[in-house]
């Protein structure tokens, strides 16, 4: 087992990892930018090293400085968290060259699954159902047109190396396809240095369902109860829950077996998430794989009582999984809201400044808040606007909803604007209460109605 681990991240995920390391008896090393000198993760870690100035490129994405910090402090492993370098295969290779363990999958696995077109082909070869579309990369707009005619419009052009919504274009008809192809390819080239594209049929009226898997160096593998991530805005998840209220126990097992088939086919190492779209007939289609711990891993932890970060560290150290499939039980339901420093009434414009006062309303069973906030800390404009995660777990979904509502009502964050009130309205929405919301529901139905009510209230 490692004696010291460097955490190559910031904010709530860095705090969350450091806490698990402490419980394992492992020393932690934090890295920070000049803007994060007073951050909570820096204060909690056993050691902290400044790796650059405020811009992510100069600090949290500065691979050489991060590795120098690991070597200089004697860290034997690096936990990347999510975002930043968590899915950067070059960074994994550099860790290996320095004799440092990367707590995650191998570099070749990240490369394979990070390229969405290659991942589609791999899943097809493994017998995993995929969304109808192109096989491999598209040579040009003419080939894209041929595939679109075959699967039917509307279609989605997607960057093979994409992420974060970049290099994606919805195309309604043949006439607009060529221009969309060129735009998306150019955007992908600028964002990722890779302009290659592929195409998928747009699956409408669907849910976004994902399955967390875990696999150790001995080849033992397990899956966890699915998460429903259908509440989205701008293709970004807002609320995640486990399990999906519409999926039966038999479907859960079938979906888990599909996810394990995918993980075993690529000899996956450590934890990752297979993401699917589920249609109205409950057919599942592979969408992509995230080769890291995810923001929403917390709801899985709440319904299974398993610390996924501790398991990550143990597996990375060569130990077998500390649990098997029969030991993973679904206990009730859990729901997570991502708390962002933003103003929903102003088109979710980011909010920055000093947190003047903070009240964290935890207490009672099944309540959790992951955050790096404290009274007096500053929210800077340099990083993602997510500042906290509220998670409620109950005997059933309705109780979980009520617990999250209580957390939202009681939490106080003054000095900045957050999306708390927006979530309170969303949790009262009839479609959400029924659990039937699809991926387009927030933008298509809820958000326009919410804006209308807000505007009327302001008059």
TrEMBL record:
Residues 1-447 form the Biotin carboxylation domain. The keyword Lipid metabolism applies. Residues 120-317 form the ATP-grasp domain. Signal peptide: none annotated. Its cofactor is Mn(2+); Mg(2+). Pfam families: Biotin_carb_C, Biotin_carb_N, CPSase_L_D2. It is an enzyme of class 6 (ligase). It catalyses: N(6)-biotinyl-L-lysyl-[protein] + hydrogencarbonate + ATP = N(6)-carboxybiotinyl-L-lysyl-[protein] + ADP + phosphate + H(+). This protein is a component of the acetyl coenzyme A carboxylase complex; first, biotin carboxylase catalyzes the carboxylation of the carrier protein and then the transcarboxylase transfers the carboxyl group to form malonyl-CoA. This is biotin carboxylase. It comes from Ligilactobacillus pabuli.
């Amino acid at each position: 087992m490692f004696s010291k681990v460097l955490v190559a991240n910031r904010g709530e995920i860095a705090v969350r990892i450091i806490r698990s390391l402490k419980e394992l008896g492992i020393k932690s090393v934090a890295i920070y930018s000049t803007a994060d000198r007073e951050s909570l993760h820096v204060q909690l870690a056993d050691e902290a090293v400044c790796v650059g100035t405020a811009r992510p490129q100069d600090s949290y994405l500065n691979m050489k400085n991060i590795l120098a910090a690991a070597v200089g402090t004697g860290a034997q492993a690096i936990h990347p968290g999510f975002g930043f370098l968590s899915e950067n295969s070059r960074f994994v290779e550099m860790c290996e060259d320095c004799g440092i363990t990367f707590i995650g999958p191998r570099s070749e696995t990240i490369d394979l699954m990070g390229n969405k077109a290659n991942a589609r082909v791999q899943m097809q070869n493994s017998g995993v159902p995929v969304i109808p579309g192109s096989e491999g990369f598209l040579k040009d707009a003419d080939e894209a047109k041929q595939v679109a005619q075959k699967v039917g419009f509307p279609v989605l052009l997607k960057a093979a190396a994409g992420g974060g919504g970049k290099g994606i274009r919805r195309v309604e008809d043949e006439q607009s396809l060529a221009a969309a192809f060129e735009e998306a390819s150019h955007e992908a080239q600028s964002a990722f240095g890779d302009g290659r594209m592929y195409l998928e049929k747009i699956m409408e009226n669907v849910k976004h369902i994902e399955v967390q898997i875990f696999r150790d160096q001995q080849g033992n593998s397990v899956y966890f109860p699915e998460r429903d991530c259908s509440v989205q805005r701008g293709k970004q998840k807002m609320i995640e829950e486990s399990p999906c209220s519409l999926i039966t126990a038999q479907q859960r097992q079938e979906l888990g077996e599909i996810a394990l088939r995918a993980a075993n086919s690529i000899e996956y190492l450590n934890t990752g998430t297979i993401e699917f779209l589920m249609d109205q007939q409950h057919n599942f289609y592979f969408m992509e794989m995230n080769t890291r711990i995810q923001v929403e891993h917390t709801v899985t932890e709440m319904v299974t009582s398993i610390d996924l970060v501790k398991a990550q560290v143990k597996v990375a150290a060569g130990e077998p999984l500390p649990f098997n499939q029969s030991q993973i039980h679904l206990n009730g339901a859990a729901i997570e809201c991502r708390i962002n420093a933003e103003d929903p009434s102003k088109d979710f414009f980011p909010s920055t400044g000093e947190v003047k006062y903070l009240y964290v309303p935890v207490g009672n069973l099944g309540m959790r808040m992951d955050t790096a906030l404290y009274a007096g800390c500053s929210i800077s404009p340099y990083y993602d606007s997510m500042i906290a995660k509220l998670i409620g777990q109950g005997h059933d979904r309705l109780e979980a909803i009520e617990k999250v509502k209580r957390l939202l009502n009681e939490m106080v964050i003054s000095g900045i604007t957050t999306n708390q009130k927006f979530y309170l309205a969303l949790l009262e929405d009839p479609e959400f209460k029924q659990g039937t919301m699809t991926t387009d529901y927030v933008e298509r139905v809820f958000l326009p109605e919410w804006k209308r009510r807000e505007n009327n209230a302001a008059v």
